[in-house]
Specification:
five-stranded mixed β-barrel, 2 domains, alpha+beta, 251 residues, elongated, 38% helix
């Protein structure tokens, strides 16, 4: 058999196809597994964001109440917390809006009632003309308030994201420790290392809440069909080539 394939100049193409097709099929099946995982993740996030808000303290305590809440149980959980904004320590996260144009998200330290520990609340979007707090004084609410929003975890510095500019108070990724140092210096107060994306708009309309991006890319079916299609195409091309070689050499 090998001799015949070699004689018909089909040995190397056959070997290549026998290696490539299983790899392509495996890649396609792997992408289908990834699709199932991503579908589950999207459904889980949708359920969390639609659930009734839970006290942040309870979320942080975890199912067993020992304060060991899994990060996977915190991200996108809908929570409520009481405390007061520290408006004089606002930080600005670069976040242009497709409809409203250039602007930032306003991250304000929030001292929790009772414990006094601090987390950052992303109060939402403001356009450049309302970046200065004095231009949106109605939204600088004093005293104790309750905030409802989605829990977000600190981020990592992605490869193509600019460095945070602490001097200019302009942030590009959620560096919780860096943001605490920028707002409070050293020593910093006790903190809760999560962010809370506020749902509601501030009084006066700015900042505009509900800015959490919930759209997760899910192109795994497309990728799976691409790999499996390549496998089918390769087999078809090889079949045509092999038939042609055998017919030509047999004539």
């Amino acid at each position: 058999m090998l001799a015949r394939l070699h004689e018909r100049k089909l040995l190397i193409p056959t070997a290549m196809v026998l290696v490539a097709v299983p790899v392509l099929v495996w890649l396609g099946l792997w992408q289908l597994d990834r699709k199932a995982w991503k579908d589950g993740l999207i459904a889980d996030i949708a359920a969390r964001t639609a659930a009734a808000p839970v006290d942040l303290e309870r979320l942080l305590a975890g199912p067993s109440g020992d304060g060991q809440a899994a990060k996977s149980n915190l991200e996108y959980a809908r929570a409520r917390v009481r405390g007061r904004y520290l408006h004089d320590k606002e930080l600005y996260f670069y976040a242009p809006d497709q409809r409203l144009g250039p602007g930032v998200h306003v991250y304000t330290p929030f001292a929790r009632s009772g414990s006094g520990d601090v987390l950052f609340v992303n109060r939402g979007f403001v356009p450049e003309r309302f970046k200065e707090p004095a231009s949106r004084g109605q939204g600088q609410v004093p005293g104790e308030v309750e905030v409802v929003g989605l829990v977000r975890l600190p981020g990592a510095h992605a490869r193509f994201v600019p460095d945070n500019d602490r001097k200019a108070n302009l942030w590009f990724w959620r560096d919780f420790d860096g943001m605490v140092r920028a707002a409070f210096g050293d020593p910093a107060p006790k903190t809760v290392p999560v962010f809370l994306d506020a749902e509601a708009d501030a009084p006066g309309g700015w900042p505009k809440g509900g800015v959490t991006e919930l759209k997760l890319s899910n192109r795994h079916l497309e990728y799976a069909l691409t790999w499996l299609g390549l496998a089918v195409a390769l087999v078809a091309i090889y079949g045509v080539y092999a038939v042609t070689r055998l017919r030509d050499d047999g004539s």
